[in-house]
UniProtKB/TrEMBL annotation:
Transmembrane segments: none annotated. The keyword Hydrolase applies. InterPro entries: NUDIX_hydrolase-like_dom_sf, NUDIX_hydrolase_dom, UDP-X_N. This is NUDIX hydrolase. Pfam families: NUDIX, Nudix_N. PROSITE patterns: NUDIX.
Amino acid sequence: MDMKWLEWAKQIQAIAQTGLTYGKDVYDIERYEELRRISVDILANYTSVNKEKISLTFASDSGYATPKVDIRGVVFKENKILLVREKIDGAWALPGGWSDIGLSPSEVAVKEIKEESGFDVAPVRLLAVLDKKFHDHPPEPYHIYKMFIQCEITGGKAETGVETSAVQFFERHDLPELSLERNTPEQVKTMFEFLDHPAKEVILD
């Protein structure tokens, strides 16, 4: 299905949000509010989500519109990669989540790995910064950058968290069903390339 409508809705919402932040003229504010309503109408028309929920989650931010940042921790052990099973969809993902205000990307990776897998880790290096629009993820209303940070285990043990139901290391040719909102098979395959070639350059986009 052509998803141009989703890109248009996101762009309209970003223009409206930025305009509402910096606009001074009362008539301009009204126009930006109307643009925001149009972006909500587009999503409501093409999805099964009601307008109230869309307004709260998609069209309620303020300030200059910027992409969201998702941090994923990459941990290897005996040539296997650490994955956690997400309770929300029953599929597997590299441990991680949204970046947090007040924490650096490395600190987020360490925190998320601990919370979702039970392992204490130390950050090693940045592996990739990817824009989700260039990768085979399901469509969504946000523009998202993904950062993959390699970490090494320093302690702890495998334990599930509030959002996870299982913790396991997998070989590259025996991956489970992946949570495609969080990571794609191609992305996990790429992480193994860093295991094979430690000097591999950071990937952008």
